[in-house]
Amino acid sequence: MKLIKTEDAIGHVLCHDMTQIIKGVTKDARFRKGHVVTQEDIPVLLSIGKDQLYVWEKDDTMYHENEAAEILRDVCINDHMIPSEVKEGKIELKAECDGLFQVDVERLNEINDIDQVTIATRHTNTPVKAGDKLLGTRIIPLVIKKEKMEMVKERGGDRPLCQLFPYKKLRAGIITTGNEVFYGRIQDTFTPVVVEKLKNYGMDVTEHVTLGDDKEKITEAILQMKQKGCDVITVTGGMSVDPDDQTPGAIKDSGARVVSYGAPVLPGAMFCLAYFEDGTVVMGLPGCVMYAKTTIFDLILPRVAAGVEVKRKDLTSLGHGGFCLGCEECHYPACSFGKSW
Q: 211: part of which helix (H) or strand (E)?
């Protein structure tokens, strides 16, 4: 491209979009890339502050910003993602469905370390709704050397940078524990909260039982719910070290593989996660799930709903960002809770 005075641009091809801003009326591209400048365009270009223009000079060693944006899009895009049209060198991706959005953060950082290249995403493991924006791409200058975009492709590798896992149609069972509830001493206010959170991710609660603090009966109920086809089994309460709290031991006795009892998240440190060999998930939920707006349950549930296995390292990594501020108005997931920077 070359720089010329606007008055001398008649007949030349613009190499980037020109935005016109009229307060309260419009903020959009007045002239698009590829437009051939006419005599009538000159006053308009001058009115939007364009005393000089870059016009396109074909160079086989360079990519235009729009061409570069398309390469960045191709590095990122995966199933269930919808790209925008390229506009002023930018392309965004939106979610085609509800699901769990994941990013290979290490590869993302490697690509963004290339000078003049930018990909900005939402945090990995963010639950999203259909139509939500996922990421945006662009380069900094109007043109970029092709060799830099080859570096992007190389660091991007042979698989997309991002994934969107749609939520599965899962069946859930809830085991409510505690002598105080079983014997009617207090009203069960825990189960309704769990039912609502499960339904938010499309899970049907097909089984529910209330038990006292009896480890053997809790274990038996877990196995019965698994036999009846529950994909996700939640056990509410009984998660502390008090002598009456039997849930962690009952989960272990069921034969499920315990990933962790305890997690570096507040609220939710006494959380327990386990898996049976067939993938059935068992979660022991601490009492904070009943009254706190957002807890570790909200961090793990989207992954469970999307069928993404949660490993111990996933839980331990939650410590950085795992301290909820307990805001009066909860903004999760549009906040730092559970996000590693």
A: strand 204-211
